[in-house]
């Protein structure tokens, strides 16, 4: 039944090339991430990791094959309904000029329905509590356009908090832990596992530590899967 597939992501022989280009960027990719699982994608620069992630919320459309989310082809969703299910954390953390809270809620913080405790919970899981609470105005502190008054790791933590606040079924992390020191990376991932254990995660990463605990690791090379297994198997 469809209920069994909630939170599931499945790639069925997916290929991608840019419209008009001759070379494929991704070729014949098949894998499944079940509800609650973490699948890590590794591979050298340019191997197609970001492209693979981008196909799921349909930032780009697969050329061949099918991508299923909750058992339904992503092409058959209204874009908004598909993206509502997904928390996407981009490679480069995007910050807006406004308060910490508005950066986490994407401007919804003035709505009645917004619970301050949900913002704080998201920031806490994302390991941002300490640095936010050190700022004079804390959650009301101003972040400048592009987050120029924050460090790279602070921006990454806030953009992860933004995804957590959204409370999606699926998290897509595009190299989203790269600017964190090892300890913060480790603590943050264990908190994610503890607090958000029913979400499905796809993590693109460079650092072995970040992906060691993944249920499955997919090794990409020039757009093809050249290895799949757990860290111990590979
Ligand atoms: P990195 O680790 O450096 O982020 P990646 O594995 O995420 O790399 P992608 O960003 O998915 O790799 O890029 C895959 C391939 O697609 C690369 O060869 C890249 O040059 C190519 N590519 C990316 N964007 C475009 C574009 N807009 N037009 C044509 N080719 C592109």
TrEMBL record:
Domain ABC transporter residue range list: 9-234
Annotated compartments: Cell membrane
This protein's name: ABC transporter ATP-binding protein
Organism whose genome encodes this protein: Niallia alba
